[in-house]
């Protein structure tokens, strides 16, 4: 290759990298929260204005990889935190693929045990690569960036090494505050944990944006809990025409009766929310 061709190629690559940089810098205005469209599962990406990034769950399969590729520049292969709310396949499996391709600085999980090959692979990879792990427990707080904090509301006590019969109930529940806007991420908790949160953490669960628990299952989103949360909007991560009938008609009725608008990934695809410190936000 001649000198001029090499120079042209270098210039083109440089221009491409610069363009990507500008595009992704512009996308960092305010807080970005995206509920990925990963089918029947959960995966939520959060990016602070300073560039810090959090991934909550990875959904089933590897659909999360394409979703990450849409929001991260090709040269960014790190994540500041990965949160595994609980080790069911529709939350865990995608994370097994993510950690092979992206380097998380820390993992937040409960540490409960689960008898699946994917969970064994997850544990083995985390341990063999020396990835730091924090075991979630109510009261833990994380200062992610300016104006941005996260707090663990559940589980109420340490779960490391336990083997619960109902793993959904051990889900990590997070409250996130960005300026004047608040969020609640609920994993797959069901009515029992919702009731406990509504009683013990009533002020903490009162938020603007709710990520609906368990894909809108009839076992979650009780009227008592929704009245405690009083969200302005509810986000549901759910697969199209799924065999579980999620979100349940009676759950949708509860939201409708309480005047809470619902946004769904099975109808709209990935749900993107951009928030600003003054409490304003837009969903597209």
UniProtKB/TrEMBL annotation:
Residue span(s) of domain Metallo-beta-lactamase: 40-240
Fetch the Pfam families from UniProt. Lactamase_B
From the record, give the transmembrane residue ranges: 7-24
Q: Which UniProt keywords apply?
A: Membrane, Transmembrane, Transmembrane helix
SMART domains tied to this protein:
Lactamase_B
Classification via InterPro entries = ComA-like_MBL, Competence_DNA_uptake, Metallo-B-lactamas, RibonucZ/Hydroxyglut_hydro
Kindly give the CDD domains that the UniProt entry links to this protein. Answer: ComA-like_MBL-fold
Recorded protein name is Metallo-beta-lactamase domain-containing protein
């Amino acid at each position: 290759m001649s000198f001029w061709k090499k120079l042209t190629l270098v210039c083109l690559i440089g221009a491409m990298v610069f363009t990507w940089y500008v595009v992704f810098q512009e996308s960092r205005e305010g807080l970005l929260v995206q509920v990925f469209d990963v089918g029947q599962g959960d995966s939520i990406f959060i990016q602070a204005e300073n560039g810090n990034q959090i991934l909550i769950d990875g959904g089933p399969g590897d659909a999360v990889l394409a979703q990450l590729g849409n929001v991260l520049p090709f040269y960014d292969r790190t994540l500041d935190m990965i949160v595994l709310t609980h080790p069911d396949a529709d939350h865990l499996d995608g994370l097994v693929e993510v950690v092979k391709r992206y380097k998380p600085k820390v993992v937040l999980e409960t540490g409960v045990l689960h008898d699946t090959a994917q969970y064994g692979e997850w544990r083995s990879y985390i341990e063999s690569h020396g990835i730091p792990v924090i075991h979630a427990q109510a009261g833990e707080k994380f200062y992610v960036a300016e104006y941005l904090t996260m707090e663990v509301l559940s589980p109420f006590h340490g779960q490391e090494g336990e083997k619960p019969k109902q793993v959904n109930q051990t889900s990590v529940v997070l409250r996130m505050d960005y300026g004047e806007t608040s969020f609640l991420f609920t994993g797959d908790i069901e009515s029992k944990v919702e009731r406990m949160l509504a009683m013990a953490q009533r002020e903490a669960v009162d938020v603007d944006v709710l990520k609906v628990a368990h894909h809108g299952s009839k076992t979650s989103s009780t009227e008592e809990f929704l009245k405690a949360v009083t969200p302005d909007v509810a986000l549901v991560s759910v697969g199209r025409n799924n065999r579980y009938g999620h979100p349940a008609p009676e759950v949708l009725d509860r939201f409708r009766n309480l005047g809470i608008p619902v946004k769904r990934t099975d109808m709209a695809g990935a749900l993107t929310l951009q928030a600003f410190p003054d409490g304003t936000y837009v969903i597209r």
